[in-house]
Amino acid sequence: MDAKVIIGRFIRGLREQKQLTQDELAGKTGITYQYLSGLENGRENFSIDVLESLGKSLACPVPQLIAGAYAPEVGAPPPVVDKDYFNRQAPLPPGLKLADLEAALNATQRIVAGINANLIASGAKSLPKYIQGNNFSGLISNVLCDALSDHSVYKHNSHQAYPDLVNPGIKSKGVPAGLEIKSTIQIGKGGESHNGHSGWHCIACFNIEQATGNVKFIHLMFAVLNSHSHPQPDWVYVGSKVNKASGSRRTETYNTNLIGTTKLRDGSVYLDSSAVDFTRWRQQRSGPVPQYSIFAKL
Description:
Elements: H1 3-17, H2 22-29, H3 33-40, H4 48-57, H5 62-70, H6 98-121, H7 133-151, E1 155-156, E2 165-172, E3 175-184, E4 192-193, E5 199-208, E6 215-225, E7 235-239, E8 253-256, H8 258-266, E9 268-271
Parallel strand pairs: 3-5
Antiparallel strand pairs: 1-2, 2-3, 4-8, 5-6, 6-9, 7-8
């Protein structure tokens, strides 16, 4: 499609979204009503000066205006997980079903795609451009937690403490089965925690689509981990670091040791083999490789 038509149509959409008439936008921009009509319909050429004036009038700078015009349509389908990538032998927390997990993953991807579509349609950037690094991963963790609460027997922990989710229908010594959720863009990374507790943990790894800012889950790991105080711990204390840029101190942190990381990798319940090469990952365990492990066939 001609660039004039693509950009003109996007400008018309922004104008209508902001409830401006052509007369009003033309007046704010310093051009005639007839010229603006021609621009919106792809009949007139743009100059850089006109684009800059339109962008200023619509609160959409030229780089965002061009990116928004060429972004995928708002109605474009969000990413969907591939059923063939599920490992149906991998153990899951008690009461959690693969169908529930699939629904929660797709819901998370759909929610993020919806946010991005609306941002881009309004001339803004995609969500990862505003929320970066660990903060964005934390947001994905929160959305995934909520999706699991909506689609499975695991519900939000009402005490807002460890773990993130609990299954009130299954208890051990009066304590509900729990599940801690962490998301990361660092593929193959083990667990990270502010407390190093024992119990079920899930690490959800995702990619970010550059064109849309949408997330696509490519690797999910589940494992029961021993606390840092256990005689055979799966966590190692890595301390509290100071952010050199901001001067703020990071919260106390534990990372899984190699044994704990291997437990998680053994419990890979979803693995996009086209995006993840696990064959060179290090392993360490006290017993044989479980039959359900991704390493069992190596």
